[in-house]
Amino acid sequence: MRHPAAGRNGAPEQTHAENYYYQKQIQGKTPVVVVMKRWRKRCRGVIEWYDRNCIKVNRSNASALLVYKPSIRYNLIKPAKARP
Q1: Among 9, 29, 54, 76, which has the minimal tally of Cβ within 10 Å of its Cβ?
Q2: pLDDT: is 78 or 28 the higher one?
Q3: What is the maximal distance between C-alpha atoms in the chain?
Q4: Per residue in 8-56, pLDDT tens?
């Protein structure tokens, strides 16, 4: 009798969901808030560039910031303010 998982390759190592997410944020120039793991520091800006290990966040009030992905707790998409 064969083991049920014997012929399967398992889950793919990369699903490309992260790539899709970052591409959409870059193309839309979506304002985001990046919350860091340590001290829960926040970085507000627009994601300009990314690779496997880092993202580059352009900030309007300061210089651009290169953030190491493992140091990110989570990203928040900052909603645009409604116009009257």
Answers
A1: 9
A2: 28
A3: 68
A4: 666 667 778 989 999 999 999 999 999 999 888 888 999 999 999 999 9
DSSP state string for 28-81 = HT-EEEEEESSTT-EEEEEEEEE-SSEEEEE-SSS--EEEEGGGEEEEEE-PPP
Q: Which token pair is 68?
A: 């190491």
Is 80 exceeded by the pLDDT of residue 79?
no
CB neighbours of residue 9 within 10 Å = 6
Pairing verdict, β 54-58 and 42-50: antiparallel
- CA 26 to each of CA 5, 6, 15: distance values in angstroms, whole numbers, following the listed order: 39, 41, 19
Residues contacting residue 67 through CB under 8 Å, at least 6 positions apart: 34, 36, 43, 54, 55, 56, 57
